[in-house]
Amino acid sequence: MDHIQTQSTGDGALLRRYEYDDGWIVAADLGVDDETVAIDTVGETAIVVVEGPEEPVETEFELPGTAASAAVNNGVLTVEGER
Known about the structure:
The protein is an all-beta fold and 83 residues long. The chain has one domain: Immunoglobulin-like. It is built from no helices and 8 strands. A 5-stranded antiparallel sheet has the order 1-2-3-8-7, with no helix packed on it. A 3-stranded antiparallel sheet has the order 4-5-6, with no helix packed on it. Strand 2 and strand 3 form a beta hairpin. InterPro entries: DUF7127. This is Hsp20/alpha crystallin family protein. It comes from Halorubrum hochstenium ATCC 700873.
């Protein structure tokens, strides 16, 4: 298993990427309620929208491949894919 950790610029979430022989996982602790997060994936890009107190905040990040699933649980975003 390879573990790659990156910090987005500014106050962004810490992204962690885990690569296995048969797939990968990208995880980020968003620190917000699950109900405030919407995620969509298009090709090798994840699009995350967090509803803020004033207006929504949208961010995008590249994935190591096409996503098979995406979920938010207890404020932690996970995107999984296969090799």
